[in-house]
Amino acid sequence: MTDIQALFERIAPLYDRLNDQLSFGLHHVWKQMAVDWLELPQGATALDLCCGTGDLSRVLARRVGRQGRVVGLDFAAAPLAIARQRSYHYPQIEWLQGDALAVPFAAQTFQGITIGYGLRNVVDIPQALREMFRLLVPGGRAAILDFSHPQTPALQQFQQWYLQQWVVPTARQYGLAAEYDYLWPSIQAFPTPPILCKLIQQTGFESVKHYPLLGGLMAITVAQK
């Protein structure tokens, strides 16, 4: 088990509560935006990589309807167990433990793919992008939601303050300070928007659109095959 995998196994029971508290509920809005930008029709087939406890998977399920199909894939068992418990009324969702770098489906299986706060945590970002490209049908879209690099020095300072003075102390209340300490260095190591868009283009995607949120504190990047 990798360190990141073990981390998500530990935080799974409190992950959603902390997400609501730390984003003031806005993560639900951003996830809905990511799914909307996929422009999936009813009956479509979609994949939610690094699905965690299944928020994005459920938004996808509402989008594609009962006649559609959604696969929620994550490498950690504990979040998947919570996702299953919370999604009994979404029979169109299949939950699968697996690796985002080697997804066990044939090429051109999905019309849309989401990955929320997951690309930053994979060990090989270019390989994850290649898998998304392989799995999408021609014309299909992928939406990447994650922390980003703010557009101004003031917002960069705010992001660091927010993570170190709000996120970690809040997580400490639940005994998870060490688990959330990883956020700041992981964001610093994540590709900047121009580099991320270039990586996506090099994978073979036809078009890439980057949408900063909150001045670039977060972002959704949409790529079309």
Give me some keywords for this one:
globular, 7 strands, alpha/beta, 9 helices, seven-stranded mixed sheet, 225 residues
Word description of this protein:
By secondary structure, the protein is an alpha/beta fold. It is 48% helix and 22% strand. The chain contains nine helices and seven strands. A seven-stranded mixed sheet has the order 3-2-1-4-5-7-6, sandwiched between helices. The longest helix has 21 residues. The mean pLDDT is 90.
Q: Stretches where pLDDT falls below 50 for ≥5 residues? A: none
The share of residues in extended strands comes to 15-25%
The residue-averaged pLDDT reads 90
Helix content class: 40-55%
β-strand number: 7
Strand order, sheet with most strands: 3-2-1-4-5-7-6
| Large-scale geometry | globular
Number of helices: 9
Question: Termini separation (Å)?
Answer: 33 Å
Major sheet: size, sense and barrel closure?
7 strands, mixed
Structural class: alpha/beta
What sequence of helices (H) and strands (E) makes up the elements?
Answer: HHEHEHEEHEHHHHEE
Rounded to an integer in angstroms, the radius of gyration calculated over CA atoms is: 17 Å
